[in-house]
Amino acid sequence: MKRILLLIAVSFGISVLFSGQGVEASEKEYYPSKEEIEELNNELQNLVEEANEKLSQGEEDVEVSSENLYLGFKVDDGKILNSLSSSTNSNKVGIQAIGSKSYQAYVGNTTGFNFRHAVHGTFTWDGSILNAITYVEDLTGPMYSKSASTTVQGVDGTIGRTAKIGKLTSKGTFTPLKWSPASFYTTLVVDFYAPTKSYKIITAKVNM
Q1: 190 Cα distance to chain centroid
Q2: Phi, psi of 127 (to 5 degrees)
Q3: What residues does 187 pair with on adjacent strands?
Q4: Torsions phi, psi of 93, nearest 5?
Q5: 153 CB neighbour count, 10 Å cutoff
Q6: What is the largest CA-CA distance in the chain?
Q7: Residues 6+ apart with CB under 8 A from 25
Q8: pLDDT confidence of 56, banded at 50, 70, 90?
Q9: What would the pLDDT profile of 1-51 be if each residue is shown by its tens digit?
Q10: Residue 65, φ and ψ in degrees, nearest 5
Q11: How much is the average pLDDT of 162-191?
């Protein structure tokens, strides 16, 4: 009887030991280390360059990916709201392009539990002047609590008055609901150019 109890106790101890190793392995699998985060950002830098190359060639539905990450930027062409303004002199017609485009920028992580940080909205222009940049954040990831903050500012002046270039900076926070005390932070920075009606991804990062 004592021998049976001893065998049960030993078996239980081995089970607990391997179970603990499984939990630890699971943590490492689902939540990358700081070193792995650095590798992810190296991947992201390559993706930013690849995406911007496609955008510069006029593509409007861009998504690029690596082993662990994906990055996208999509645009819908807006309409010219007012293409002509007539003057009293029939030989002089002022042409004023007032229009808009809707956009969506996003970065996602596929290492372990997925999370995705997206921001979408519109940017509008009046000739070469940037009128406005609107935005809505969209963070997804079922195993995280999530929050975001986004700011817009003129690079070379005041948006709606003198700025021709605008910068959008969106930051996300993903806090695991269990297993890991660390939070993950995402950053998306996009520049919008009114004179050329174009855009460029400046920064995409994942940090701890």
Answers
A1: 10
A2: 65, -120
A3: 171, 205
A4: -120, 120
A5: 13
A6: 111
A7: none
A8: very high
A9: 444 333 334 343 333 333 344 434 444 445 667 788 888 899 999 999 999
A10: -150, 160
A11: 91
Interatomic CA distance for residues 165 and 192, integer angstroms: 6
CA 97 to centroid of chain Cα atoms = 30
Residues 6+ positions from 83 with CB-CB distance below 8 Å: 95, 96, 97
Q: Minimal CA–CA distance to 40: which of 110, 94, 91, 113?
A: 110
AA identity, residue 18: F
Tokens of 23: 């939990």
pLDDT of residue 31: 63
CA distance 133 to 52: 20
The single-letter code of the amino acid at 119 is V
- DSSP assignment, residue 135? -
- Judged on CB neighbours under 10 Å (0-12, 13-18, 19+), 138 is middle
The Cα 57–Cα 9 span in angstroms is 68
78: buried, middle or exposed (CB in 10 Å: 19+, 13-18, 0-12)? Answer: middle
Residue 148 CA to residue 106 CA, distance in Å, equals: 13
Q: Which tokens go with 82?
A: 């007012």
Decide: 174 and 186 in contact? Cβ < 8 Å.
Answer: yes
